[in-house]
């Protein structure tokens, strides 16, 4: 398969996907890229059950005690954002409403 210039391939979970940008121009935020990569690694290690291990890799390694669900990840992410916002309000002298 011939890929466009600047487009690479990645293999995850036995499938090959194109790791592409939204556009060919430089303009994608690094924060969005970092969040997407972190989400992918978390899902691979904490949410997905692997056939060879019969559990998630984090559970097999003893890092996690339970299998996570996507709803649990979203709830934890939102709680962390709320905690970060309230901390920023305290530092700037604003009161959280």
Structural class by helix and strand composition: mainly alpha
Strand content: 5-15%
Strand order, main sheet: write it out.
1-2
String of helices and strands: EEHHH
Our measurement of the CA-to-CA distance between the termini, rounded to an integer number of angstroms, reads 55 Å
The total count of helices amounts to: 3
The helix fraction, in percent, is: 40-55%
The profile of the biggest β sheet is: 2 strands, antiparallel
Radius of gyration, rounded? 18 Å
**Strand element count:** 2
**Shape by Cα distribution:** globular
Mean pLDDT: 77
Poorly predicted segments: none
Describe the structure.
- With 97 residues, the chain is mainly alpha-helical.
- The protein has a domain at 29-92.
- It is built from three helices and two strands, in the order E-E-H-H-H.
- It has a two-stranded antiparallel ribbon with strand order 1-2.
- Strand 1 and strand 2 form a beta hairpin.
- It starts with 7 loop residues before the first strand and ends in a 5-residue tail after the last helix.
- The mean pLDDT is 77.
Gist?
Helix content is 47%, strand content 10%. The protein is mainly α. The protein has a domain at 29-92.
Notable traits:
3 helices, mainly alpha, 97 residues, two-stranded antiparallel ribbon
